[in-house]
Amino acid sequence: MTDREHADAVLEHVAVLAFLYYPGIQRDDPTYRLAEDIEWCIARLGDVSDTESERMRALIARAITDPTATREELFTALTELNGVLAVGHDE
Asked: What is the 3-state secondary structure (H, E, C) of 44-78?
């Protein structure tokens, strides 16, 4: 997978999870674990440092639970992490 494909895969997974998430989900579904959803997204990142992985976990968690407030920050972090912006803007 290219860096761009990794970033796109993470964003797609976060978007699906953000759409499905709602306050009280753990009350309605006691088996729900936000940490499992985060790991599902992190698995799409590819090879990143532990520091970057922890940073991305925090951003992904916030993007799932409050996408409006966090989506731009997550997008920027993913593009910086994978060097997508350095590749070019004409795609």
From this structure: CCCCCCHHHHHHHHHHHHHHHHCHHHHHHHHHHHH
